[in-house]
C-alpha cells in the first residue's frame, strides 16, 4: 500500500476548523515573513482592511488626510532550509505523549507546505553526530515529498547523539544565498557549542528555532511539560496531552538507557529537584537564543504546532521592523 502524501496530510490538517485561525495568521498577518517586502516601493494606495498597518506611510497619510499604505515589490522565490535534529533523543516522548520525531515531522511538513504554496525552494540538512542528510533547495511537490520522506526515515532510536552544531556548520558552508533557516530540535538545545554555530549562521541568514518539549517524567501519564515551558500562543488547550495506556512502572532514558524506577517517581524531593533543574536549563537555553538574536518557540505536541508557529512568525516579523 503506497504511503500517503505528507503534503496532502498537512493540507488536510490545515483545513480543520480547529486550526483555521492559525492558518489565517500564517497566510495573512504573517505573510511578510514568508513573502518578504523587498527593498523597492512599487506604489502607494489607500489603506483597506487587511493591509499591514506597519506599511502605512505616515507622511503621505498626513498630506492626504487618509491612511496610505506603501506597496512593495515582493521578494519571491525565497530559499528555505530545514535543519532537523535527528539524534536519538528526538525519538523520546514529547509533552503531549507522542514521540518527539512525530511532532518534529509535522513542523517540517508545515514549513514545506507553506513554501510550496509560495513556489519557494526548500532544502534540508538533517542528521546526528554520525550521519548527515543534505538535499539542496528546490521547488515542486515531488522534491518536497522526497525531502520529507527522507527526513522521516532518518529518525531512528538507534541513531547517534545529536550534533546540532555540525548541522549548522554545514548550512553555513553550503548555503550561500540568504535564506530562511528553520531549526527543529528539542528543548535542551541549543547548547553553548550550538549557540556559537547558530550565531555564525545568523550573520548570513534569517533563523528561527522550533523546540519540542519532553514529557514530564513525573506526570501521572507522562503528560504536559512544566508551565515554565509554555509556548507563546494563546491556545487554550496547549498540547492536549495524549494519555499513556496501561500502568507506567518505569521510565527509560533513550540516550543513556537508564531507567527511572517507579518508587522514585513518588518522591516529592526528587520530583522538585528535576523540575527545578529543567526550568534552569530552559532559562539558560532562552538566554543563549536571545544573545544571538534568534526567535524560538516550544511546542508540546502535534496539536499546538500551528498555533505556536503562528506566534513565532508574528514575533519574527515584529523583530524585523
Describe the structure in your own words.
It contains eleven helices and ten strands. It is globular, with a radius of gyration of 21 Å. It is an alpha/beta fold and about 325 residues long. The protein has a six-stranded mixed β-sheet with strand order 5-4-3-6-7-10, with helices on both faces. It has a two-stranded antiparallel ribbon with strand order 1-2. It folds into two domains: about 40-70, no CATH class; about 80-320, 3-Layer(aba) Sandwich (Rossmann fold), CATH 3.40.50.410. The termini are far apart. It holds the Pfam family DUF58. This is DUF58 domain-containing protein.
List keywords for this structure.
321 residues; alpha/beta; Rossmann fold; 2 domains; two-stranded antiparallel ribbon; 11 helices
Write the layout of secondary structure elements.
Blueprint lengths: L5 H9 L5 H8 L3 H5 L5 E6 L11 H7 L3 E5 L6 E7 L14 H19 L2 E7 L4 E7 L2 H14 L9 H11 L5 E7 L5 H11 L3 E7 L37 E3 L6 E3 H4 L2 H24 L3 E5 L5 H16 L1
Parallel strand pairs: 3-4, 3-6, 6-7, 7-10
Antiparallel strand pairs: 1-2, 4-5, 8-9
Helix pairs in contact: 1-5, 2-11, 5-6, 7-8
Amino acid at each position: 500500500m503506497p504511503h500517503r502524501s505528507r503534503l496532502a496530510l498537512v493540507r488536510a490538517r490545515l483545513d480543520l476548523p480547529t486550526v483555521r485561525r492559525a492558518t489565517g495568521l500564517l497566510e495573512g498577518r504573517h505573510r511578510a515573513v514568508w513573502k518578504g517586502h523587498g527593498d523597492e516601493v512599487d506604489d502607494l494606495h489607500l489603506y483597506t482592511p487587511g493591509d499591514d498597518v506597519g506599511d502605512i506611510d505616515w507622511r503621505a497619510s498626513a498630506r492626504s488626510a487618509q491612511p496610505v499604505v506603501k506597496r512593495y515589490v515582493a521578494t519571491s522565490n525565497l530559499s528555505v532550509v530545514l535543519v532537523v535534529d535527528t539524534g536519538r533523543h528526538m525519538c523520546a516522548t514529547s509533552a503531549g505523549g507522542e514521540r518527539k520525531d512525530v511532532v518534529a515531522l509535522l513542523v517540517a511538513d508545515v514549513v514545506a507546505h507553506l513554501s510550496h504554496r509560495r513556489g519557494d525552494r526548500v532544502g534540508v540538512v538533517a542528521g546526528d553526530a554520525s550521519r548527515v542528510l543534505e538535499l539542496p533547495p528546490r521547488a515542486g511537490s515531488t522534491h518536497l515529498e522526497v525531502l520529507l520522506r527522507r527526513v522521516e526515515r532518518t529518525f531512528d532510536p538507534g541513531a547517534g547523539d545529536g550534533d546540532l552544531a555540525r548541522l549548522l556548520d554545514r548550512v553555513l558552508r553550503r548555503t550561500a544565498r540568504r535564506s530562511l533557516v528553520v531549526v527543529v530540535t528539542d528543548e535542551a538545545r541549543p547548547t553553548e557549542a550550538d549557540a556559537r554555530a547558530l550565531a555564525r549562521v545568523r550573520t548570513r541568514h534569517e533563523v528561527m528555532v522550533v523546540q519540542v518539549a519532553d514529557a514530564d517524567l513525573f506526570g501521572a501519564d507522562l503528560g504536559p511539560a512544566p508551565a515554565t515551558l509554555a509556548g507563546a500562543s494563546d491556545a487554550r488547550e496547549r498540547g492536549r496531552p495524549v494519555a499513556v495506556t496501561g500502568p507506567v512502572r518505569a521510565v527509560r532514558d533513550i540516550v543513556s538507557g537508564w531507567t527511572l524506577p517507579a518508587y522514585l517517581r513518588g518522591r516529592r524531593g526528587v520530583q522538585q529537584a528535576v523540575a527545578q533543574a529543567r526550568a534552569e536549563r530552559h532559562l539558560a537555553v532562552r538566554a543563549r537564543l536571545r544573545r544571538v538574536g534568534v526567535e524560538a518557540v516550544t511546542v508540546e505536541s502535534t496539536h499546538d504546532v500551528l498555533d505556536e508557529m503562528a506566534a513565532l512568525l508574528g514575533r519574527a516579523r515584529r523583530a524585523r521592523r
